[in-house]
Amino acid sequence: MFGITSYGGHIPRLRLNRGVIYGANAWMAPGLIGSAAGERSMANWDEDSLTMAVEAARDCIDGFDKSQIDAAYMASLNFPFEARLNSGIMATALNLNSSLDSADFTASMRAGASALVAGLNAVKSGDFRNVLVTAGDRRITKMAYTHELLAGDGAAALLLGSENVVAEFKSSFTITDDFADHYRGEGEQFDYNWEERWIRDEGILKIVPKAIQGLLEKAGISGKDIDRFVMPCMFPRVPMQIAGMVGIEAEKAADNMHNVCGDTGTAHPLVMLIAELENAKPGDKILMAAFGQGCTVMLFEVTDNISKMSNKRGIKGCLADRKEEHNYIKFLSHRGLLHQDQTMRAEANWRTAMSTLYRNRKMILGMVGGKCTKCGTSQWPQMETCVNPDCKAVNTQEDCEFADQPASIMTYTSDLLTFTPDPPAHYGMVTFENEGRGLFDFTDYENGKIEVGLPVRMVFRIRNIDKQRNFTQYYWKAKPIIKQEEV
Amino acid sequence: MAEGIKDKVAIIGMGCSKFGERFDCGPDELMVEAFEECIQDAGIDRDEIQAAWFGQCYDELGTGKGAPGMAIPLRLPYIPVTRVENFCATGTEAFRGAVYAVASGACDIALALGVEKLKDTGYGGLPAIDGVNSGALAGQILPNISAPGAFAQLASAYRAKHNVDYNDLKRAIAQVSVKSHANGAKNPKAHLRKPISIEKVMGAPIIADPLGLFDCCGVSDGSACAIVTTPEIAKSMGKDNLVSVKALQLSVSNGEEVGYKDWDGSYFATARQAAKKAYKEAGIKNPREEISMLEVHDCFSITEFVTYEDLQISPEGGALKDVMDGFYNSDGQIPCQIDGGLKCFGHPIGASGLRMLYEMYLQLQGKAGERQLADPRVGITHNLGGFPSANVCAMAIVGRYE
Q1: Contacts of A389 in chain B (CB under 8 A)
Q2: Which residues of chain A does CATH 3.40.47.10 include?
Q3: What is the pTM of this model?
Q4: Which residue in A290, A421, B275, B305 has the most C-beta neighbors within 10 A?
């Protein structure tokens, strides 16, 4: 047996009420009203497809022996780098083995599903023991475009393997069809989309049922055997219509999460699948369909191990960690779509020395510090000479991961002078429960609710964007652990 | 065992430019302004200067790297000139170089000059941290910390440690600034010369919580300098009423505050070390009773506040009471920032340590005009640079040569 052995999700904490998008654009695009209900997830300024994928992966592999992971794949339509392996950055951030296969999957809305198929085939072949598959999308659209309302930001991660399988992989079936419902030419920022009715009638309603039927035949089952049907779709009723066409009961079609999150692009089939796994019982057969220049359909059967997943943050936990945002301008600014004055302080030269980054990649990207083998002191960062004044041993440090260590705030301020895309900048000294401390930016905080001793969780985020060279620089920040009722 | 610097070197001349937003001046003009006053005060010819130390922090805004930046505008006679930089303690660092050179016998007369030309950035505050200029690695890991943001964190830790209410501390540090503004108003060379009320300080816009606009010192252009020699040579030149160096100490963070468990964020570990050594070097047993006046590094009101305790003037946890009692006011037991401090005299980084000594020198010689204290005998300058978690603390004790 092989299949999904763990899962994790990340939906940004910020949720933009769609009414504000509609309200700002109704004067020129009154038709947006049709999609303006509910709220969409909104990446903070320091979140992108990669940081969200890393956070989903951390949730997914928490407690798992990372040395057993042989491959890490990431899918996105909005990678921060067109040239530089994004899954490689992810692997470094997760401090995975360096003997690791990795690949970026992109270009199609079903790239997340494609990565999943590739990962499962690798496990099936026996080449790789465990494969980590993530998909993350911070989807950038033009202002006032329907997809600005339909899209959400988010990521999903699945661990694939043959031990402790929670959802057995049964079969997959893919149709490849150059149906260009949207495209983005080289160097372009935005997708160009064709008429929605054509996409629905000539694309989705023709290609998806054919792919599902292909899978059902291959697996030797009928639509009636399917317990849950997962299919992202911009047309809310179409999945039910398709279910009917292939013999699946209409109520088995899962909600597309439009009201709470929006369509997270390549991640969305996985996000919806995880949301179903969170409510699944052993024996459930879940059919997942991902549309995009064809269609990939996958069939999973939930096992008894599903009960072991109850401690995951998952999609459910992310959706519960929620803060409403009502500022459309802030949404646009966070996505780099505005050219506002950010003061001269924003003009600093932020060129990143690649040689320095590489030398220090474990620290900067992987949050790996040191632990002295002589006196046992954990320390951040790892340096040649031990920080303990009673030790000061030289070259006695071994790697020590800090990312998952419980931590709390020791000093703080909120700074209105310095440049940050979301002033005031909050930062301060963070102490780790297990020794070690450092100065870190804070993120996802509640303004005015920071205090000495507040527990924080370290998260992988954008530290800075070098606009001159379009280089996104990543580092770790402290996210206050806030009880939802205090928001 | 080293016996220290006490009474081995005397200051025979000092000069200080007007501090402020000197948009009409570059660093050259500022240096000449301070130097001319200094050399006339010393009563020597510039060719008698045998070695010089030049302090400047932001070379990218000032004269660039190296020492010709000072040697050329002052037309120094092909002597050794050394440029030093040690954050905001740069001025004291230049002074230390000159004093040690004289004490060693390597030369008879040495010059220390500090200058900073900040008002060419185009914006308020100190220059922003720059990914390249802040060091390649630091530029990839440190938060984008501003100076007020760095020091504001002291307040959060101090409140937590001593269980002080937010508004009580806010009011006490406001009083620190009110006191300095009252002093600065009497100083014709000061950048900011308006007295202010505690309400105005507390109601001012926040810069980095809890620090508001009036909790932050002036960002100024300026220069200050000193000429030093031995007391014996000074006397042979006919000088009386001599001011001599009693102690010079420097303490630099080694990463324990920012990396080990002991420091709690509410004080300066370096200042406590520097103070202990400086008092020993100067032979001071009870600073609260023996010191006549203080010039501390009040880049921010909270910095001055915690420094009272670091220098063992206020007991630990006792600064708030001393401040509110007026202990540090011009008519208090130990006047602090009698010239207005960084807060009002201004803070041209490389000049500040020497500017503090300039006020001590004037006060000890009875030349401080409207600000003159009654019979000061010994004063401390405390000059600090960097962040509370990693910094450079320089201290000088000067007094009458008796």
Answers
A1: 256, 260
A2: 3-334
A3: 0.96
A4: A290
